[in-house]
Specification:
CATH topology of the largest domain: FAD/NAD(P)-binding domain
Shape: globular
Bound molecules: flavin-adenine dinucleotide
CATH class of the largest domain: Alpha Beta
Number of domains: 2
Structural class: alpha+beta
Distance between the termini: 37 Å
Number of strands: 19
Strand content: 15-25%
């Protein structure tokens, strides 16, 4: 095994402070370098752990496809879950700290224009306006002159934006490679051995192995009970020179401006055909949204059609914790459509469990025990 690292402080480590350690048993082996595996590895490194991350080159990574939207208020009922107040500030701080460490922009704050889809959504907004818990996230109502407009109106959402997920994955992978803590390979479950409560995998030995495989955990023979309910989705990348609004538009479908004429338009939702490719009808139904918003329709080119699978859990809450009979094995998964907001806070809780033995807060364990 190549160089490992040694740092004393907690929090995300500046790369310059990580020093190689002699070959020795790993603290944690991580399978999967999506957002979950990346941010968990970084949280563990920050606590001085010896880590190794294995990934198959993002063959099935939702994180590579995701728009990375941070949206505290979701669904037509405009609900803010209790986790938002906990997770959003931690995510914002985490990405700003990583921007400094990795020396690249990651988090892009952008207002979101929420255009009502129906009367029920408009009524939900009126109700939320009187609720102080929603005040930090609600901006002004949209005016009749705002463009594009919806017949039912809309409002500005605040504390929204997007995470550049690929910049984060590339930056963390480069950091891990620099430390000799990354290998590109497909993990083969058949080669995993548990020896006296520890992990042996090929030439690696570790105290713990944490699976962060996203939706492909469906094939994990050690966690057959994991309550995953994944959903495939497609996103289009468009280019347009037209003067379109530089805010995130959201009316069920959303349009995200990424600068220099690039836009992402999404997303479809399919629980059945997880391995299906997006068909013409699926792409056309995304593009129809542009006709609803813009008249005349701006000229655009389609640059990319991307497809990924969201690792949703059945109850829409993250799935983390250890195996009930083999506590050397664990999972960190189930972040669904909200990985950008949820993962940093949960990575801290998982790191506390792994490093300090601190139990997960009630209800967080994947068995909901
Ligand atoms: C269309 C779409 C739009 C989305 N939009 C948003 C959004 O706007 N905002 C948001 O917050 N979230 C969004 N998401 C969800 C977001 O992508 C996920 O919450 C998050 O990326 C999950 O990260 P993960 O690391 O758990 O899984 P993944 O990103 O899937 O990472 C798992 C990694 O493990 C690797 N792997 C799996 N099995 C093995 C194996 N046996 N051996 C080696 N490697 C393996 C995979 O190749 C992959 O690299 C979207 C997802 C999709 C599909």
């Amino acid at each position: 095994m190549q160089g490992q690292y040694d740092i004393a402080s907690s929090g995300f480590p500046p790369l310059s402070r990580l020093k190689p350690l002699p070959d020795t048993i790993l603290d944690t082996l991580i399978v999967g370098q999506g957002l979950a595996g990346s941010l968990l590895a970084w949280a563990l490194l920050g606590r001085g752990q010896r880590v190794m991350v294995l990934d198959d080159g993002h063959r099935s990574a939702a994180s590579v496809v995701a728009a990375g939207l941070l949206n505290p208020i979701t669904g037509q009922r405009l609900v803010k879950g209790p986790e938002v107040d906990l997770c959003l500030p931690v995510a914002q701080r985490c990405y700003r700290a990583l921007e400094r460490q990795l020396a690249r922009p990651l988090l892009h704050a952008l207002p979101m224009w929420r255009l009502f889809q129906n009367e029920r959504e408009r009524q939900a907004w009126e109700k939320r306006c009187g609720d102080p818990a929603y005040a930090p996230y609600l901006g002004e109502p949209l005016g009749a002159m705002d463009y594009p407009h919806s017949a039912l109106g809309g409002f500005v959402q605040t504390q929204t934006g997007y995470l550049d997920t690929n910049a984060l994955l590339d930056g963390i992978r480069a950091g891990l490679q620099q430390l000799g803590a990354y290998r590109q390979c497909a993990f083969d479950y058949a080669q995993l051995e548990l020896q006296q409560g520890q992990i042996a995998y090929q030439d690696l030995q570790a105290r713990r192995l944490i699976f962060c495989e996203g939706w492909r955990a469906l094939a994990n023979p050690w966690f057959t009970e994991l309550p995953l309910a994944p959903a495939r989705g497609c996103i289009l990348t468009l280019h347009s020179e037209a003067p379109l609004p530089q805010v995130i538009l959201n009316q069920g479908r959303w349009l995200l401006p990424r600068g220099q004429g690039e836009y992402r338009l999404g997303a479809s939702y399919d629980r059945e055909g997880l391995e299906a490719e997006p068909g013409e009808a699926e792409i056309a139904s995304l593009l129809e949204q542009l006709e609803l918003w813009f008249a005349p329709l701006p000229a655009y080119r389609i640059h990319a059609v991307q497809n990924g699978v969201r690792p949703n859990s059945r109850d829409r809450q993250p799935l983390l914790g250890l195996h009930p009979e083999h506590p050397a094995l664990g999972v960190f998964n189930g972040f669904g459509s909200r990985g950008a907001m949820l993962i940093p806070w949960h990575a801290e809780r998982m790191a506390e469990l792994l490093c300090e033995g601190r139990p997960l807060p009630t209800g967080l364990d994947w068995r909901r025990a």
